[in-house]
Q: What sequence folds into this?
């Protein structure tokens, strides 16, 4: 079976680049784990249905499984703000 394709938008890549080096390593391992087992995260509900959240310490990686083997990272951030930010991103996508 082919390995899933990981799509990371430029703004998320820039956010990762700005993280503390220790946190960057943790995020990289979490992304590798998501690639290995995309169904391992927690399915989100209500307005964020169709998205999945993966926990890394106090941070969350929000992603969705696309067609075929594609995994699209929506955003990464602290739990405190991540769900509001994800809702804003998804609202902007719906308006397009």
A:
């Amino acid at each position: 079976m082919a390995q899933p394709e990981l799509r990371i938008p430029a703004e998320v890549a820039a956010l990762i680049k700005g993280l503390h080096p220790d946190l960057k390593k943790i995020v990289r391992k979490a992304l590798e784990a998501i690639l290995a087992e995309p169904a391992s995260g927690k399915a989100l509900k209500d307005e964020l249905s169709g998205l999945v959240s993966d926990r890394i310490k106090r941070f969350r990686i929000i992603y969705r499984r696309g067609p075929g083997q594609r995994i699209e990272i929506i955003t990464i951030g602290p739990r405190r703000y991540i769900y509001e930010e994800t809702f804003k991103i998804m609202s902007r996508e719906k308006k397009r």
Q: What stands out?
A: The mean pLDDT is 90. The domain at 5-94 is CATH 3.30.2310.20 (YaeB-like fold).
